[in-house]
Write a structure and sequence with these properties.
alpha/beta, Rossmann fold, two-stranded antiparallel ribbon, 11 strands
């Protein structure tokens, strides 16, 4: 097992990845974590997109700060079952750019895992940046050996091609890929609720068949889901039963796959 704090028990660890930027990794990570917490699972969400941290806004915790206790960093307690950590919860000026080279990012990730008192968790979700660079190499070093990845893609070929590179990275780093989620899978018309496939359809599902990786589900482009991210709420707490069902179905497949 990779080095982790003796005081932490991370449970099942999933790193949300994609070779492509702008596919909604943070949206998916936040909603999976919040969904697991709503089901009663003790869940941690670690945001290591150090140059573009989105998790504080998506969870409605912008303006909050993390604190320390007994020489350890304490993640922010979002609700009874959800803890979160992000560089965005450490900065006085939230509009200031984080201009770090690889070694600084490596040390930050090491501290996020080893110097944070996460406590006893059932699930640990990691929101990662695009690509297959320094951050992902550091994660593969410091996360528990049993960790796995969830790949996020949009339907079109240009996104799927980059996700293949991330899957190749995972293979080289001996990180299993638990499943693929197709985000922005059709646009839901706010007037008639018809799904319009503006980015084509099925790229993620086709990739899952080609590489024999489980397909966990689709999330449409829905204005309500976009507004939730901007307003700091999540799909699990939506009043729309269809939206709640989308994330519930994905999490159910995720849990069944790992159990």
């Amino acid at each position: 097992m990779s080095e982790t704090s003796q005081n932490n028990s991370f449970g099942q660890v999933f790193t949300v990845m994609s070779g492509k930027g702008g596919v909604g990794k943070s949206t998916v990570a936040a909603n999976i974590a919040a969904g697991l917490a709503s089901m009663g699972y003790r869940t941690g969400l670690m945001d290591v997109d150090l140059h573009g941290p989105s998790i504080p806004k998506m969870l409605g915790i912008e303006g909050e700060f993390i604190h320390g206790q007994n020489g350890k960093i304490l993640p922010l307690q979002v609700n009874e079952n959800l803890k979160a950590l992000s560089i965005g919860l450490m900065m006085e000026n939230r509009d200031e750019a984080v201009i770090w080279r690889g070694p600084l990012m490596h040390n930050a990730i090491k501290e996020f895992i080893q110097e944070v008192n996460w406590g006893e968790l059932d699930y640990f979700i990691v929101d990662s940046p695009p690509g297959t660079g320094d951050v992902h190499l550091s994660l593969s070093q410091f996360l528990p050996k049993e960790s796995s990845a969830i790949m996020i893609t949009t339907p079109q070929d240009v996104s799927v091609a980059d996700v293949k590179k991330s899957i190749s990275f995972c293979k080289a780093a001996h990180v299993p890929v638990t499943g693929i989620i197709e985000n922005m899978s059709g646009f839901k018309c706010p007037h008639c609720s018809e799904i319009i496939d503006i980015f084509s359809k099925g790229g993620g599902e086709s990739l899952s068949r080609t590489l024999d990786i489980p397909f966990l589900g689709r999330i449409p482009m829905d204005r309500a889901i976009c507004e939730m991210g901007d307003n700091g709420s999540t799909m699990a707490g939506s009043e729309d039963p269809h939206i709640k069902q989308i994330i519930s179905d994905i999490i159910t497949k995720l849990i069944r796959k790992e159990n």
